Every structure is written in C-alpha cells, then in structure tokens.
Amino acid sequence: MLLKNIRIIFQSFFLIFCIYIGYKFYHYYQWATGKSDFYVPKPPSVEAFLPIGSLVSLKKLALTGAYDSVHPAGLSLFIAFILLCFLMRKAFCGWICPVGAVSNFVQKIGSKLGILKELPKWAHYPLMSIKYLLLGFFLYMILISMNLYAMEAFIQSPYNMTVDGRMLKFFLKPSAITICVLIFLIAISFFIRNFWCRYLCPYGAFLGLIALASLLSIRRDETKCINCKKCEKICPASLKIYEKDKINSPECQGCFDCIKVCPAKDCLSMSCVNKIDIKSIRVFAGMVLIFIISAWLIAVFAGKWESPIKPEVFRTYYMMLEDKDLR
Ligand code: SF4
Ligand code: SF4
Ligand code: SF4
DSSP assignment of 224-276, as one string? Predict the structure, then answer.
C-alpha cells in the first residue's frame, strides 16, 4: 500500500524538506540581516530555487570552465536536474519539485470533487505558448544577449549575492497583488489540471525541451490496448496516450500514473531506446533517488556545494539589503 503511493511519498518528502530548508534559511537570514546574533549556516539547497542565475552560471562555465563561486549548489542542482530530465523525462517535475507537488495535490482534490475540467483546444494552445514565450525571453537574454563581462558583473553583483534573501522577503512580506495571484493560481488549479505547470512555468518548459532527448519514454503496445482512455484521464498533462505508440511529449513528467491505472496487462511501460522496459514504479523511484543522492554527493566531494565566500561577506550585502541600499 505504502509503495503503491511511492510518488506521493517522494513529493511529500521533498515538499517537507523544502519547508525545512526554508525554515533554516529564515534563521540564516535573521543573522545575515543583523536581526539575530545567533549564526545558522545557510542551507545550500535553497539555491535550487535560482534557475535563472544558474543558467547564467552554466553559460559562464561552458565558456570559461569557471564554476559559480556565489551559488555553487544552485549550479550543481541545475546541472543535476537537466541530466535527470535527459535520463528520466521531466522526473524533476513529477517527483521532486514542491510546486509541482502542490499542483498535483490540488488537481487530485479537484478530480475527486468532480470539478476538474479540460480546456478546449482554442484556449489550451494559446495558454501553453505563454511559458514558451517566457522561456524564449530568458534564453534570449542570457544565452544570446549576455556577454562574458555582463555575466561576471551579474554573478558578482549585490543583487545576485542576496537573491535568495530577496526571494524569502518576497514570500514573507507578499504584496496584495502577490497574494491575489497566489490565491488565483491555487484556486484555478482545482478546476484546470496543473494550471501553473502546464501553462506558465518557464522552468518546466525548459526541462520539457531537454526531456525531448530523454533516454526513457512511455510506450504503448497497441495490440494490448483496450482504448479505455483511463490513461488520459489520470495523466497530469492530459496526454492522449492511447493515440500513440510512444509518448515523447515535453509535458510528460515520468510520473507512472498512466502505467499504474492501465487495466491492460503489459500495455504501457517506460522504455529505453534499446527496448529495456521499466514496468515497476519502484524501480523508477529507486533510480530517481539514487540519481539525486549521487548528484548531491558528487557536488559535496567536488567542492561544488558550499560557497567559498565567507558568511561575513554575504552578511555585509544582506545588511545593505535590509537598509534598502540595494534597491
Ligand atoms: S513545471 Fe515548473 S513548477 Fe511545475 S513541477 Fe515543473 S518546474 Fe516545478
Ligand atoms: S489505459 Fe491502457 S488500455 Fe486504456 S486506453 Fe490507455 S493504454 Fe489503452
Ligand atoms: S501519466 Fe504517463 S504520459 Fe502522463 S505524464 Fe505521467 S508518465 Fe507521462
């Protein structure tokens, strides 16, 4: 029973873990901004929430071979999530991302209440273009417009030094508009499946494009399919799995829900290019877990996890942030 819900266990674990690191980061922030004398080390994993800065750092790494010294854990996790998508589709979205987890939970409540609806095509496709337009903007600004000088200036800027603190401040003291937007996004997710993830998140769009080259994909054995369409009803991306032999959509999160719900034995499987089938969600979950732990250990032992910059230096910038000097 427990293993049947293994994805929910993963999602809940990472959600609770994110709340825990948020709590630790809050205490670090209190010290860094001079509100407390009690030093709490910054949890480096908080940098997972800085994908834009990590993309800048990745470009710099590719051009110069120099690793990000300000938010090294952010870059390490960014690279790990890209590799994870290359290996196991958008498993980051389906198994790890706390926002995706909340979105999935809300969607499930909407489904149980019978209020979950599918948007008509005329609304679905224009809405879906929003996240790709946002992604295109960021890719253009970072990969095309930014030269080495601009990248270095950004990475060493006071803004980047305190960007995680700014993010915390954004959620600790949300404006009325922020609160309204958050309420709207949660409320609409009861009615429209995974609204934020499917239509608005540029990070998910980026990972989805990487996942197009993924080694694994859902495959359907047409001869065994009874066309019940249960797979589409449960799919968080509402993919029409029953229409294809291979699902290579940028929306597929590798969640295994379609395989779990399919009543036809051996009809659906997660398969590799050379036809190695992964039929068990436990095996897939184990692969995700081993990958994440390995990525973390490699980053720690390679010295790409903790910033070499002294906490006191960060504190100087944070104090300036608190004094509103950096705004
Ligand atoms: S689409 Fe964005 S918010 Fe949703 S699970 Fe993926 S990364 Fe997270
Ligand atoms: S759930 Fe399985 S049997 Fe039903 S339509 Fe989908 S692939 Fe075919
Ligand atoms: S239900 Fe199947 S096709 Fe849909 S996202 Fe999950 S694994 Fe991919």
Answer: T-----HHHHH-TT---GGG-SEE--TT-----HHHHH--STTSEEEEETT--
- CA of 305 from ligand 3 middle (Å) equals 32
Q: Write the pLDDT tens digit of every residue in 81-135.
A: 999 999 999 999 999 999 999 999 999 999 999 999 889 999 999 999 999 999 9
pTM for this model (two decimals):
0.94
Q: Assess contact for 291 and 84: CB atoms under 8 A.
A: yes
Are the CB atoms for 55 and 78 separated by under 8 Å? yes
Spatial neighbors of 21 by CB under 8 A, at least 6 apart, are 43, 45, 46
Query: Locate tokens 């608190």: which residue?
Result: 322
Residue 220: in which H helix or E strand, if any?
A: strand 216-220
End-to-end CA distance of the chain: give it in Å, rounded: 52
Instruction: Please give the distance, rounded to the nearest whole angstrom, from the Cα atom of residue 207 to the centre of ligand 1.
Output: 9
Cβ-based neighbour number of residue 68 at 10 Å? 24
Q: What pLDDT digit, counting tens, does each position of 93-108 carry?
A: 999 999 999 999 999 9
307 CA to centre of own chain: 22
Q: Residue type for 128, please?
A: M
Q: What is the pLDDT of residues 229-271, one digit of tens each?
A: 999 999 999 999 999 999 999 999 999 999 999 999 989 999 8
Q: What SS3 state is found at 258?
A: helix
Q: Quickly tell me which residue has 């819900």 as its tokens.
A: 5
Q: Enumerate residues 6+ apart whose C-beta is below 8 A from 266.
A: 221, 224, 279
Ligand 1 lined by 295 (C-beta under 6 Å):
no
Distance between CA atoms of residues 96 and 83, nearest Å: 14
Q: Is 208 in the pocket of ligand 3 (CB under 6 A)?
A: no
